[in-house]
Design goal:
The protein is an alpha+beta fold. It contains two helices and eleven strands, in the order H-E-E-E-E-E-E-E-E-E-E-E-H. Strands 1, 4, 5, 6, 7, 8, 9, 10 and 11 form a nine-stranded mixed β-sheet that branches. Strands 2-3 form a two-stranded antiparallel ribbon. Strand 4 (50-55) and strand 5 (60-67) form a beta hairpin.
Length: 132
């Protein structure tokens, strides 16, 4: 009986770590402030903080983590309830590998970003050749 109780208390914190809560809002509830480059709530003017599921229309929802109004972390875009894009943001800029998916879930396109700009394919080939 003691083992079951210990296991119970061990599994509760683990289950909480794997789930993320998302704040559901419509795009119309947000505004982008050009002067600060932050995304804020229209009602309060406060920058977004936390994980937001931003509904663009009835077909698209963006799941984006925000820190003080800046996108930071893994973002996913769903269109017609299917994953359409996935990648990372660092201070509002796309960073690293971004994947774009077909309707059937296969990868349509793979683009690499560095500080929001696409990385030239030439640079990627050189890095790959050096690793070999």
């Amino acid at each position: 009986m003691g083992r079951i109780i210990i296991l119970f208390f061990f599994l509760i914190p683990m289950s909480n770590c794997s789930t993320q809560t998302w704040i559901n809002i419509d795009l119309e509830e947000t505004e982008y402030v050009d002067a600060t480059e932050k995304t804020c709530l229209k009602k309060t003017g406060e920058p977004l903080n936390g994980n937001y599921a931003i509904k663009f229309n009835r077909h698209q929802t963006n799941y984006e983590p925000f820190t003080d109004g800046f996108k930071n972390g893994e973002a996913k875009v769903f269109r017609n309830k299917k994953l359409a894009e996935k990648g990372f943001y660092q201070n509002n800029l796309k960073q690293g590998e971004w994947l774009y998916y077909n309707e059937d879930g296969t990868i349509r396109k793979r683009i690499y970003f560095q500080k929001g700009k696409t990385k030239p394919l030439k640079d990627l080939r050189l890095r790959w050749e050096r690793k070999r």
